[in-house]
Amino acid sequence: MVEAATTAITSRLGSRRPSVAVVLGSGLGFFAQRIQDAVTIPYREIPGFPEPTVIGHGGELVAGRLAGKEVIAQSGRFHLYEGHDAGIAALPVRTFAALGVSTLLLTNAAGGIRRTFAQGTVMLIADHINLTFRNPLLGRVLTGEERFPDMSDPYDPRLRALAREVALDRRVSLNEGVYVQLLGPSYETPAEIRMLERLGADAVGMSTVVEVIAARARGLQCLGFSVVTNPASGISPNKLNHTEVMETARRVTGELGSLIEGIIRRL
Q1: For the domain that residue 43 is a member of, what is the CATH number?
Q2: Residue 228: phi, psi to the nearest 5?
Q3: Is position 81 annotated as part of the catalytic site?
Q4: Domain limits at 60?
Q5: Residue 231, Cα to own-chain centre: how many angstroms?
Q6: Is 57 marked active-site?
Q7: Catalytic residue status for 203
Q8: Quick one: how far is CA 84 from the chain centroid?
Q9: Model pTM score
Q10: Is 26 among the catalytic positions?
């Protein structure tokens, strides 16, 4: 499946060879508009890529130049809660690696567990917790992947240091913390949030972790950001809804986009 997807994408890219891939979370698809000389590839033209069913996920790859680099952006994720297995959720990441990408930047919309996180906070992911009980590496070892990848630094320390420097230069407020992925699609209960808080999680969402596992198995350097779109259940008395998630993510797109563009420029 990876080979077929790679062949289809390569045929559309021509001589372009992206070195950086950016995965865009809920409501963050507007970042793709920053890419110049863009080639857009709808998922329906890529073997094995399903159509996203979630509002706020576009369903296309956008390749071109950004900050002097060849990049490819994934606008639309495949979530486990849509019925996909972890291998499908990680298919774009594996395809990026096959295309020659060496650096993977991931974004997501998340609920804030740390009580000091305001709505719209950008959190640099320092580490993660996988509570989906799914792993994209199950089964036979795919070509180019490690059987037992080391996960002591899933998010590259050098890239995280660079992110902090760029945030300081561009006056982007940047927090750092631990992200936890749950299966979804229901939001967490207050009791579950209290449990996650005790486990050391600062933000919670329904993506990213399984993608990073596959990326690390392929040797990609990873950097992740969570946009805290709402306080998690029980932190605030307000009810949670996906519309609010997307609206908050869109408000932060400019700030996060500037940060990511600055990081890519200095790679």
Answers
A1: 3.40.50.1580
A2: -75, 100
A3: yes
A4: 2-265
A5: 20
A6: yes
A7: no
A8: 17
A9: 0.94
A10: yes
